[in-house]
UniProtKB/TrEMBL annotation:
The lineage of its organism: Bacteria, Pseudomonadati, Bacteroidota, Chitinophagia, Chitinophagales. Keywords: Heme, Iron, Membrane, Metal-binding, Transmembrane, Transmembrane helix. Coiled coil: none annotated. It comes from Flavipsychrobacter stenotrophus. This is Cytochrome C. Residues 58-151 form the Cytochrome c domain. GO terms for molecular function: electron transfer activity; heme binding; metal ion binding. PROSITE patterns: CYTC (PS51007). InterPro entries: Cyt_c-like_dom, Cyt_c-like_dom_sf, Multihaem_cyt_sf. The chain crosses the membrane at residues 173-191, 220-238.
Amino acid sequence: MCFKFQHCVVVLPSLQYKGKLIFKFIHVPESILQLFRISSRTALAVIYALILFSNTATAAPDGKALFQSNCASCHNPLKDATGPALKGINATFPSKEWGYNWVHNSAAVIASGDKMAVEMYNKFNKAAMTAFPQLKNEEIDAIFAYVNSVTPSAAPTAGGTGAQSEGSADSNGYLYVIITLSLLVLVVILWKANQALSRAANDKEGIINEKEVPLYRNKVVIAMVAIVAFIMAGYWLVNGAINEGRQQNYRPIQPIFYSHKVHAGINQINCLYCHAGAEKSRQGMIPSSNVCMNCHKQINEYTGEKDMPLKTAEGKVINGTEEIKKLYEYAGWDPVAKKYKLNADGSIAATPIKWVKIHNLPDHVYFNHSQHVKVGQVQCQRCHGEITEMDEVYQFAPLSMGWCINCHRQTQVKFDNDYYSIFAKYREEIKSGKRTGVTVEELGGTECQKCHY
């Protein structure tokens, strides 16, 4: 408690006499009063700023961030990908409530026999959308508001790209930094003001003030710095250990510049034409040069330099025709004579292309492509990102155990597949309406032996 008089402040001392609290008037120099006034005004300004920032940060859901974290792996606002283009799609819904139900649990809407839901499900190869029961209605509205505002020049690609991951800097995370720094400044201001007032009070009472210890010699400060340093070092070590062996965004230089954007995107070559093993075996399979030559016996130059120039991630322009010539050298093909070169023993003078493997799993992890692609009907983009937009392929997903486990918890299996005929109980429950679907987790997809044995 304090009372303000002209040129002084009455400070509340901690003296008691016979159980009664005694108040004394202490004169405080004008310089100290001025410091206190400035500190008070600064503190109020900081508090107002924090309130303003908090209101700004929580005023409305961030549609862009929600889209990138929940939808971008399968959807593009402007064009069809694994799922339909989202811009303006909410205007085609029978009602807002229908849209909310579809996002929360599309499988339930399909199971109800809704005509629009069934048509959309069949149109996109019966690839059921992941359920998002955790999204609130206002968050879904924010997502649609964002995708409806996207222009062709700013559209993110389905599956995400390097640019998209950089876009995470646009989130509201910086507000937390500002708030934390503001609170620290407020603490320092109040602490210094309290020190100044205490020293002034002591001077008035004739009490000798203790000599201030420099911060670098203050035991409390030293202890706090040591604790913070210990925590940061522990975080750095643990985080480094967790990420050991992971190589998300890994983009090695390949012996031939092969553009998936040109082949799988523009020319729409099916992934399984080159990676036939993904549907039939455990391995996705890297195609041999003779698979490439099925097309490039006729296609001996790249004609898209003007409309679609090939560029590396660093922006270096690549001569596509020269890369085709590299293929001919590896395949042993003579483009002039239009026949293969032969060795002395009559075999084709071909050399294997030393492609650099991008997606690597630890030796103790079992992963079967055919089980996911053929049986589970998982789209390639789910794990590899929007491959049709990549000139240079990079590892899109972290491929960590937590990432796989979360997918198994959320993904519903396609029970119209004969592979699941042995699960009669689940089939009957789906027919009777007791359940809308079955996740991979319910079929043992999160048991250790599923991937480690």
